[in-house]
Amino acid sequence: MRIFYTIGNTNLNTVKLDAKAACEKSLEEGKEGFDKIVLFNTKQSHEKGMLQKQIDIYREHMKSVRIEEIMVDEDGMIDGRKISAVFDEAGEKYVDLTNGPKTTTALLYLAASLISIEDIYFLSLKVHPQELPEDPILGQHYDYIKVSRFGDLSSLAKISYFDLIYYIDEVNEIFGDNNDSFLLRTKKGLLTAISTFFIGDSYRSAVSDATTFVEVTISYLLDYLNENETASVFAEKNKIILNTQKDPIGAITYFYRQYSEKDGSDKNIMSLITLPGLLSALRNYRNIAAHSGNIAHDFNGEEARIVLNMAIESLRRMRSNQEFWNKLKEKR
User: Fold this and answer.
1) Residue 138 DSSP SS3
2) Which among 193, 208, 218 is positioned nearest to 328, based on CA atoms?
3) Domain ends where: 157, 178, 193?
4) Is 0.70 surpassed by the pTM of this model?
């Protein structure tokens, strides 16, 4: 018997895509369909006919599958006895972490790791939800990513499901549903980098995708300072050349060093004071990743993590300056 463990969701489009992805992955691996679904359901995804709607979707893809519902509490916690009972059942187990509260997905992940389940998966969109076609294609519009279980629960894996959730949440918090061209491209690049970093098949690609925004942002930051009256007056008074393309990051760094020492009164300008250093470091990583002459350098997971952290912190800094962020929204 094959058992599919998943979490309820009020977003039925996600449920449909999740069921489709699980069945496609199963067929790809030459395995038969599922005999039973264990659905960890929240109050919201149980009430007002939501349970039946989810059942209908799963049965559309998995035919006569049996479904057992386990309710989770308001905090996303699962009764320990119930989770033990459903995992004690004999059969080939397949765990899906796509849906539901983060607390529930974390508990499900830990439970699956404890009993050494190998088939743990997570659905990741490759396009904006609004860009999904009627019949999305695996590998083109979405990926169904296999999650590595913990080998040693006394020490969290360096790259784990929790990393994936953390980084995706950070990116979504920064960008929200922003659909402006430059920001949307930056968001897509970061989400691709996070996915690649998580899978671990090419840290070089993760570094490259995470830094696609760097050169353009340096140019936009230079434009912002030139257009800002306070910054341009200070630069002229202190003979700082900002309208240069020869070494823009050097000019920006020098401006901030002088401004922080001699003035520093404009909070908007000062909110970006750490951005030049972050962009400079990210540009160095990008140059190493992008140029074939540096192919000898084999990026590792920790370097990719550093780049992701710096990229996210750069975007936090940019987001903290509403005036600069609004200018980025206008960029194509």
Assistant:
1) strand
2) 218
3) 157
4) no
